[in-house]
From TrEMBL:
Residues 26-70, 77-108 have a biased composition (Low complexity). The lineage of its organism: Eukaryota, Fungi, Dikarya, Ascomycota, Saccharomycotina. GO terms for molecular function: DNA binding. Residues 394-491 form the RFX-type winged-helix domain. Pfam families: RFX_DNA_binding. Residues 7-16 have a biased composition (Basic residues). This is DEHA2D17930p. One of its GO terms (biological process) is regulation of DNA-templated transcription. InterPro entries: DNA-bd_RFX, WH-like_DNA-bd_sf, WH_DNA-bd_sf. Residues 1-108 are annotated as: Disordered.
Amino acid sequence: MSDRSSKPHRSHKRQKSSLTNIGYYFPDQQATQQPSQQPSLQPFQQFPHQRQMQQPQQQQTRQQQQSRQQHPGHNRQLSQSSQLSPHQYQSASISSQSSQPSQQSQAQSSFYDYDPYNTMNYNFSSATAPSSSTGTGHNIIQGIPPTKAIPSPGRGQFGPTPFLPYQSPTQYTIPGSVDQNFGTIPQMQLQSGQYNSEAPNVYEQFTYPKSVAEFNDVPQSETNTSVQEKQPTKHNKNLSVSTRFNLFNLNENEDQGERETDAKPTAINPLFNDFLQSLVNVDGSNINNYLLQILEKLGSPLPIDDFYNFLYNNDKQASPTPVIPTHKIDKTMVNFSIQSSAFSLLDQLLNIFKIPNSLIEYFPNIANRENKLFGINYHELLRTFLAIKILYDVLIQLPSNNDPQNYTIPRLSIYKTYYIICQKLIRQYPSPTNTSSEQQKLILGQSKLGKLLKLVYPDLLIKRLGSRGDSKYNYLGVIWNQNIIDDEIKKLCDENELVHLHRIFDTKDKNLSFPRRRNHSTNSYTSIPGHKIKLKTRSKSEPQIQLTRPHTEPYSNENIIAPSFSFIKPHLKFPESDNFTILEEKDKDNWFITIKHRAYEWLKRCNLSFSIPEAIQSVFLNNDNLVEKHLLCNGLINKIVKPLSSDLAYVENADLYLYLIAILELLPYLLFLKSYPQVNYLKNLRLNLLYLIDNFNDELATINTNNHFKIEHLRRFLILMKKLININDLLITFIKLVNKDDSSNSSVMVLDIENYLNLSDESPSDIGIDEDSESRLSFKNDILSKDLIYALNAYNLDPTLDQHSRSVLSTDFIWDEVNLIGNFFRIDLLNFLNDQDLGEKYESVTSTEPNDETDSILSKKEGIKLASLLTLIHDKLLTKHFKAKYPILVYTNILSLILNDSLKYIFIKYQKQQNNQHKDENQNSFGNWWVFNSFVQEYSSLMGEIVGLYDSV
């Protein structure tokens, strides 16, 4: 995660609910303002990413010897290497002493002579760059220089970008055919390279801020201390998705002065100056445009491998020798000195995004409220920057004079190629501080990548190609960059669907020599059986039920995927301890009280300047501080969040501890388990929580939390608060309903269990019952057994794998599980509805005061019923048998399927009975069942989320 001092990003307009629209970091909005173009750049606007190959016929002979191609900002040679090798560079021509250059100089001069790091031809738009001679061009620390809005990037508007001039090709041939989805890069004839090893490095024309390694060798007396603010340090060895995210300082004993430097450059690079001026106007709406402009203006051949390591593994940047490692994904030849300087400039820019306060070092007059960089999520910025870089390099757009339909790439192939490159980068350059699964977060989804593709290639043509019924969208006029897209990537992309690529890269201990996808038969990937499936009876000699599983996976229970907005990890299970209950036993703390005390103890060891228990009590549990709906949110910000952020320097998951404590403190009140849940308090608490859900994210974005409150954690916490409110509504409704007795003094739900949910013993041979025969419909066979098998197939889970390595589940196993679940309905739920006190071993949940009946939510009888209901769930439904065998996600899904089908089954039976005979409307129990089913599903899900939240800290 990001380590910068920033608020969670909200660059877009809030939608109706903050729960469903949290975390859209970078909406792909493009500014419409375009800077005026120089006449010489107009041809390049017409064909982005194209090489201009139009030359006058009368100059053909001379062009074959020394002509330069005009090109836009994203040009690469159409040769076997789309980037220049060091031996293809010429010395830079930066001299401009002569006011009237000779005819030969004019012939040699072209846009490839453009040097973005040379002040003598520093010009990115029609606006004239400040001159260094005036004293204001590069010393922008004096104040805020004139700024301009970030325009939507257009090809060529920033001028050509290669650093050194070189001989351009004079001829090339277009291939006659394209192999499958991947076009062959047109071959070009290059003149013999005239590389001048003594060519000056144009990056060195201006003083550059030095890296930490360089500063360590500089004597203290030589450092420039004119600037009060310190330069942000290099970001190495940090525990997060990127090594730029300093959540922990691994050198606690090192003096802060040794990690930072006071040295500042005496002059600022003109390109960096231009980036800084544009940076003032950058926010969440145009950050993608700004990142693209950085790549366009740099123009340096930065291989994708080195770019990835620069973003995520600072200790694995490019080697000090300009070689072409065969193991690299991007085999582009580079000039190391130029590449190193470009990375140095990028490092300065990313440090500003990482620590937005550092922008004040360059613009002292800017106020924090005007600094829009606080709203940009750093992790999202890095992964978006990487995606733009990959898209920028892997495709080559051909000129329009070639038939675009001869060069097509399917739209899905671009995403699959991006996915493959990201996976290879993750595995080829593992993070020193994160697992491979954590690094998966840097991969964007198809929708986001599609928007970035339109940004990088705004004029790319798209057309649906193929026969009727089998057509697919294809991009026209583009080919792959063969320096990056090799045969291995092509084969992976052509022979595998996206789901198969997921399985290939998810396989443990898989090297990069990935095998071809097997030609599975149709039986290998059968559809997941649904509720309409008929279970055929097997012979007694083979009483087995086949669980379909892919042949590529030796263990089918390793592919459980956790929901996006959940704390539950894929294989996390409920605690098997006996005290896993929300009810309080006499002289014994339950599991929830125990983990609450541990969370308090952890925060206590952080040496906070305030008492966290007193602050929690004041904010959440004091009715006087809840009389207005906004008081809880304001109190949480002012009394807890701000002091906590200032007291904790770099502590991981501090926000999760706070969220865990808040939920565990509120849970007993919202479940009516405390002895004094007064009506006014619960009413005010509900209103304040609803306000908190809608506004906490916005309020948090206005303050500096030192990145302690992460956006993904906040999003999940707010969802849990909403779930708490729903459970509170369902619980009070159900308790009131089940205490309404009919004239015969028996619950209508009891009659449903006895009449509709017929749970009489059936033999396993009855599983082959015909579903179309409604008269023989069985609750055990047609609901319990089928839903269990459906869930196991959906998660590819074999609960017996821990004991027996087999690929099938026997009918006996299914039948044993069905009987245990059936006993919950047939015995335990029936006892609860018959007013049996299941929670007698727990402390009373109602008030013992004699005169509180009028102000209490529940009566004594309803309190007993409440304790029985919670005991029913914890002791009878969440038994050790199920908690030890099934992950939380699987078991809660099984419960949801069974409860939903039971509700539908009861409704159909009840409706048919009503058609046959008149029935009193007061006997309708469908509403009771609906509330009960909803409560059980929400409550079991909440218990799993609390377990997942505790596991996360």
